[in-house]
Amino acid sequence: MKKTFPLLMLSLTLALGACGAPPAGPGAADLGQPPTSAAQPLPVTGDVTPLFGGHARPELFRDRVAALASDLWQSLPDQAAAPQDGGGPAGNIKTVRVYYSDPLPTTYPYRDGGSFHAIMLANLLGQYDNVRVIRAPISQYRSGDAAQDLRTFYIGTVYDEKIPAAFLNDVKAGAPVTWIGYNIWEMGDMSALGLQYRSLHTALTPAQIAATYSTVNYKGYNYKKYPAQQEIIELKADPAKTQTLAVARDAVGDAIPYLVRSKNFYYVADNPFQYIHPTDRYLVMADSLKTMLGDTGTATCKKQAILRLEDISAINDPQGMRDTLDAISALKVPFAMTVIPESYYGGVSYPWKGNRGGLQQLYRAVTMGGLVIQHGTTHNYHGLRDPEGESGDEWEFWDKENDHALALLNPASAQARVQQGRDVLLSLGINAQMWTTPHYEADVGLYPAINKIYPRAIERRMYTADGVREGQFFPYPVRDEYGTLVVPENLGNIQVGYLSDSVLDAAEANKNLSCAYASVFVHPYLLEKDYVGPDKLTKASLTALIKGIQAKGYTFVNPLNVTTRTLK
After folding, report:
1. Which of 180, 234, 250, 317 could anchor a disulfide with 268, C-beta 3.0 to 4.6 Å?
2. What do you get for the CA distance between the two ends of the chain, in Å?
3. What pLDDT is attached to residue 318?
4. Which CATH number goes with the domain that contains 288?
5. pTM value?
6. Is residue 12 in a domain?
7. How far, in Å, CA of 19 to CA of 392, rounded?
8. What digits encode the pLDDT tens for the residues 343-387?
9. Which domain does 328 fall in, by range?
10. Are both 250 and 315 inside the same structural domain?
11. Do the strands 348-349 and 344-345 form a parallel or antiparallel pair, or are they unpaired?
12. Please, what's the largest Cα pairwise distance for the chain?
């Protein structure tokens, strides 16, 4: 057996342009559609200084007109957030164990990420509201543990680490175990399982990466691994004793088992949590968990789609939002929208009340049934850091430029900041019911505080363990590491280099899953008439995208109605 230098195990954050500022130039004035059929008085010109904190009318607002008191909806009282979905029927809790490679010494120039990938697996297991996950390093395994619980997973990320003999014996005795990645060779003779270790295939150079086993065929769909340094383990599987559920193929078409089952034992030939992306073999692992846990309830699952409008702010030209809503209204599909409560550009506040047309389009969206999601409070560093940047461009709960937590944010101050933004929306008569973190990134210690206001979120998320901090997306709703009910965002968004065809490819890849979701978001500024980027949308192209997702068998739903399932 050839000993190789273990690869750095990372997952791609791949926020896919989760947020973005609209074009810098202003659009033409647009009064939009009023929220009711009652006639709305036209605004009068005059001094609007109080709207802008003592500043004159800002340049970006030069074509906007201020709202009148009669335009505004009545403010709303705050109500407690909807309770989190519970932990399944009493007495029906099922325990799953996840063991991972013991962390490498801190003196190593890289980290293996084993404990981090255990979190990723536990998050996926959070699709069930009655599954309890116990995580521990493999060195802590005790004889009989794997036989006591519904299933035990081992994620091998440290090459040739010592596996406890008790674990090997329990696997051979038929305990329900899923083995992922390295060290399967320590099992020795696996003839009783119908398996035999053959080799470890390593691809380090561009030529090797192009030639290696980078395509995984599962249920007739070819999932593509990210073209990076990678390894895969080859086992020989006796078809009389095993079932190969997925195969990996190389550039010339040669195939080896990728996911193989032998009675109660499953083997996954690489680490599917390394370098994940929207059409990755990560989806194979995510879908196969139901089979490994004996889930027989997926036959009732329907393919569900989620449409989200992103970065709705007071600075936007109302025309882009108006055209977006026109397309959605014609199709009569449910949708959601992330709304930025306060906008700052150059340190100047751009309030909703200063953009009558934009506010009316926001009201129109709510009247159409659009679910409001709070998208940060300022979506920049206003009051937190200097320079603070522009709303929509910058992060808010993580210092991205310096890659560390913001000194002025702790759980209490973060909760207060979120509440501040919520109060702004309530003062406009708007009740936000979910949360999306700006650019999907926060200091992980802040998530429990955010949960106290919004126990539901729709986003991709950041996780950290043993010196590794990376991102994860979910192909279905989960209760994650922080106790948040996370609604999936798995298709990404229209942006340069990732257009409608790419979104539809991701929808196709996810269609293969037993409980499939297709969650996409778009920025209405892409429909503004002055926007000329290669990712520009029109009412026709947005309509085609939505219909394209529907044509794959998905039905658009309100994300507030999406939740976890109970494992029978």
Report:
1. 180
2. 43
3. 94
4. 3.40.50.880
5. 0.90
6. no
7. 6
8. 999 898 999 999 999 999 999 999 999 999 999 999 999 999 999
9. 69-82+300-561
10. no
11. antiparallel
12. 86
